[in-house]
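In response to the reviewer comment on reproducibility (Comment 2.3), we provide here a single inverse folding case reported in full, input and output, so that an independent group could reproduce the run without further information from us. The C-alpha cells appear first.
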C-alpha cells in the first residue's frame, strides 16, 4: 500500500477530518463464483470517486458446518431459502483465499484499496500475512468476542457493523477492541435487512454513536437507491459501504439488493457533490457572490430634492443597488436638512 493510501486511511481517524467519506464497493457474493466478475468491477471503478473494494473472505466450513439438522436449515421465510441450508448458501457465496493476491494486485493498479470482512480466526491469520490494511466485522459477528479480540491485536483499523446488535452488544464489542489496544474504530450504522426499508434506517442513531461511544462513524447501506448513503455522508459518516454488482442479469446470492456499477458510480459522484456543498465554516462572502455585491441596498433619492429641504420617507428610500449610503443611516437622515440638491436616482452619500 502506497503512502497516499495510508494517508487516506489515517485521515479517517483525525479530529479535523476533511469531510470526505471513504466510499467502499462491497463485492460480497456478487462475483458469482467467477474472479473475472471482480476484475470487471475493479477495472470499471478506476478513476472514479470510489476509494476501496471490500471482499468477504471465508470458507463455508469455517462459518458454519454442513448439516441437515433443523438449526442449519434455512427457514422458508428467509430471503435465501432456495439454498436450503446455511452451508449451501455460504458455499455459493464464499470468496476463495486463492483469489486474494490477484484481487489485491488489480486494486493497486487501479488506485483502489482492498480490504476484507473476517468471519473466523483462520481468515484473520491469512489476512495478517497479507498485511490487510483494514478489517471489517460484519453484523452477525459482533458477538464473536474471540474473533473481535484477535482482529484487535492485528493493530489495524476496524470497521464494526451494528445491524444485528443492541446497545449491550455494541458496548461489549467496543470494550473488547479497546481492551486489546485497538484505537482506530469506525462504528458502522447498519440495518441487516435485504433490502433494508427506509423507515428502519434511523441514521440519527449513527450520530448518537459518536456521542455515546466516542468513536468515528460510518454507514453500511442495504437500501435500494442512493438517498440513504448520501444522507449518511452529509451527517458525517466517514465510511460509506454499499454492495455492488457488475451485471444484474447474471444472478448471484446478493444480486437482488445490490447496486449496478453505473448506479454505484453515480452515488459516489453525488456524495462528492454533497461534500463540496457542505464545505467548511466560512463567514466570508464567497468569491462568486462578490460579483453580486451591488445587488444589496443603499439610500437613494426617489424624488428631486432641493437644497435645505428635509429628508423624509417621501424623497429617500433604501433600494438596490448598493452604491449609495448604507441603509443603517436611513433613520438618522430622516428629518435632517439637505446641504445640496439631489435628482431622482442620485445616490445619497455623507
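Designed residues, in position order:
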Amino acid at each position: 500500500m502506497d503512502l497516499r493510501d495510508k494517508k487516506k486511511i489515517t485521515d479517517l481517524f483525525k479530529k479535523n477530518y476533511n469531510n470526505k467519506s471513504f466510499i467502499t464497493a462491497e463485492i460480497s457474493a456478487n462475483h458469482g463464483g467467477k474472479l473475472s466478475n471482480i476484475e470487471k468491477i475493479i477495472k470499471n471503478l478506476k478513476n472514479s470517486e470510489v476509494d476501496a473494494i471490500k471482499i468477504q473472505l471465508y470458507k463455508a466450513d469455517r462459518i458454519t458446518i454442513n448439516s441437515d439438522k433443523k438449526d442449519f436449515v434455512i427457514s422458508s421465510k428467509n430471503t435465501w431459502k432456495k439454498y436450503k441450508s446455511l452451508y449451501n448458501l455460504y458455499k455459493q457465496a464464499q470468496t476463495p483465499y486463492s483469489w486474494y493476491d490477484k484481487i489485491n494486485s488489480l486494486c493497486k493498479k487501479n488506485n483502489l484499496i482492498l480490504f476484507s470482512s473476517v468471519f473466523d480466526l483462520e481468515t484473520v491469520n491469512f489476512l495478517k500475512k497479507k498485511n490487510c490494511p483494514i478489517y471489517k466485522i460484519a453484523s452477525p459477528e459482533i458477538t464473536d468476542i474471540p474473533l473481535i479480540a484477535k482482529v484487535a491485536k492485528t493493530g489495524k483499523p476496524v470497521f464494526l457493523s451494528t445491524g444485528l446488535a443492541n446497545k449491550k452488544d455494541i458496548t461489549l464489542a467496543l470494550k473488547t477492541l479497546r481492551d486489546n489496544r485497538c484505537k482506530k474504530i469506525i462504528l458502522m450504522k447498519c440495518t441487516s435487512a435485504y433490502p433494508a426499508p427506509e423507515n428502519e434506517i434511523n441514521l440519527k442513531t449513527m450520530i448518537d454513536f459518536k456521542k455515546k461511544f466516542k468513536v468515528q462513524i460510518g454507514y453500511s447501506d442495504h437500501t435500494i437507491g442512493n438517498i440513504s448513503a448520501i444522507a449518511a455522508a452529509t451527517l458525517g459518516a466517514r465510511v460509506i459501504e454499499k454492495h455492488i454488482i457488475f451485471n444484474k442479469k447474471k444472478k448471484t446470492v446478493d444480486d437482488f439488493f445490490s447496486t449496478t456499477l453505473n448506479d454505484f458510480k453515480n452515488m459516489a459522484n453525488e456524495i462528492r457533490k454533497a461534500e463540496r456543498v457542505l464545505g467548511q465554516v466560512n463567514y466570508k462572502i464567497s468569491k462568486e457572490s462578490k460579483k453580486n455585491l451591488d445587488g444589496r441596498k443603499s439610500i437613494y433619492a426617489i424624488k428631486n430634492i432641493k437644497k435645505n429641504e428635509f429628508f423624509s420617507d417621501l424623497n429617500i428610500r433604501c433600494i438596490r443597488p448598493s452604491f449609495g449610503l448604507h441603509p443603517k443611516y436611513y433613520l438618522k437622515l430622516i428629518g435632517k436638512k439637505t446641504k445640496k440638491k439631489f435628482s431622482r436616482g442620485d445616490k445619497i452619500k455623507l
